[in-house]
Each structure stands twice: as C-alpha cells, then as structure tokens.
Amino acid sequence: MSSREEVGGSMEPSRDLIGLSSEPLSIERVYSSAVSPSCGAVALFIGTTREHFEGRRVIRLEYEAYEPMVKSELSAVCRDIRSRWPMVKHICIQHRLGLVPVAEASVAIAISSPHRCEAQEAVGYCINALKASAPIWKKVIKSVCVWCVWCGVVCGVWRHSRIAFE
Amino acid sequence: MVMVTVLYFAKSAELTGHRSEVVPLPAATSSCQLWALLLELHPSLAALQDQVVLAVRQQYVALGDQALLLADGDEVAVVPPLSGG
Prior knowledge:
The structure holds two protein chains of two kinds.
Chain A: H1 3-7, E1 16-21, H2 27-34, E2 41-48, E3 52-53, E4 56-65, H3 67-84, E5 91-96, E6 98-101, E7 105-113, H4 116-133, E8 136-142, E9 148-150
Parallel strand pairs in A: 1-5
Antiparallel strand pairs in A: 2-7, 3-4, 4-6, 4-8, 5-7, 8-9
Helix pairs in contact in A: 3-4
Chain B: E1 2-8, H1 10-16, E2 20-25, E3 28-30, H2 31-41, E4 53-56, E5 59-61, E6 67-69, E7 75-79
Parallel strand pairs in B: 1-7
Antiparallel strand pairs in B: 1-2, 3-6, 4-5, 4-7
C-alpha cells in the first residue's frame, strides 16, 4: 500500500468545481463532488423554482448568464471562502441555465469541511455571494397573458465596486 | 477608435434587440462616456439608467468618471441587476 493510500483522503488536493448546464442538476453528483474522507461534513444548498412570484403563478424560470465571467466571479468567491474558512476542503457550485420548471433546482452548492460549522457557514456565504456577484439573470414566466418580467431584484452590494442598488 | 464587442444581457438585450454587436469606441474613455455612447446607439437603454453597471474585460465597472482604456477585441457587457441563484 502506498503512503498516499495510507494517509487517505487528506492527501487529495482541495478543489473548486464550478459549472453551468442546461441539463437538470444532479444533487447526487454535486454531493459526490464535495465529499471527502478527510471531512465529517458536507453542507448543501439547493435553490429551487417557487410557484408564485409577486402574487402570480409561475410557470417556469428562464436563466441566462455571461458564462466566462460567471466562472471568474465564482472562482473569486471560492478564494474568498477559502480565505475566511481555511478548513474548507471541496467547493462545488452548479447553476442551471435555460428553462427551470417549478420545484426543480436552479442552483446547487456543496461544501465540505472536517467539522460542520465551517461548511454550513461557507455555504450560506456562497449563495449570498453568488447572488450578489455572478452575472446570471432569471426571467419569470408567469401564467396569465404574455407578461414576462426580468427579475430586477438586486440583493446586495456589487462585490467589486461596492455600489448598493435598492 | 477601437473595435469593441458589446454584449447585451437580460433586459438590455430585450430593449436593444441585440445580443452582441461590434462597436467603434474611443480607446481612452470613461464608464459614463461609454454608457452615453451606448445610449446614442440604443436610446431604449435609458430604461436601465439607474440600475445598470458595465463589465469591461469581465470586470465590473460602475457608471462614473473612472478612466477606461479599451483595445481592439475587448468585450464590454451591459449588466442589468443580477438575479442568479
């Protein structure tokens, strides 16, 4: 048995897995990307399409993204996370693009750490940072006539320029 | 003047009817001058006046006096309020 096998998962390099896909998200795959023998916790966040928006029934959401910049922004978020929680092992962030029907997942984040505190805190930070800085937009397709609206909610400050939108 | 690819997303794509276009722009400019030039091209973008930022070479830039240097082949994106996640 090699020394690498004896030491086990602690030898594996930490990884950041960031992906965009038009296919339905696999929560199992997101979890598997983060789990590690050196960690006792994987914290998960899954964002799903809600059936109501501003008092109207939602049929689905449509997402689009400035894809290369999503990758660079989320890589920066991962660096932030590792700076704040050095014990974090793996980070997996997957966002769906295109049509996302009600009750399906639009975003899944899995983060592992030796103990649960870091993973749980990092996941909460991660989704907030994604919403504040990743160039992704959702369009709400509602029932009743053809009124569709781009969701114009900005939930926080621009990470780089520190300008707040109300 | 340099040839820059301007990308439009979400509401800005609906307002302009474009996803992308190549536009001649001054090499030395500012973000608010850049925005003013885009408004001349597409007056309908005025609907986003108080909500938009730009992304120049994939870096966010607020509308203001910040000096910008552009080169041939650069990408500038019009970024309406984010709504990912």
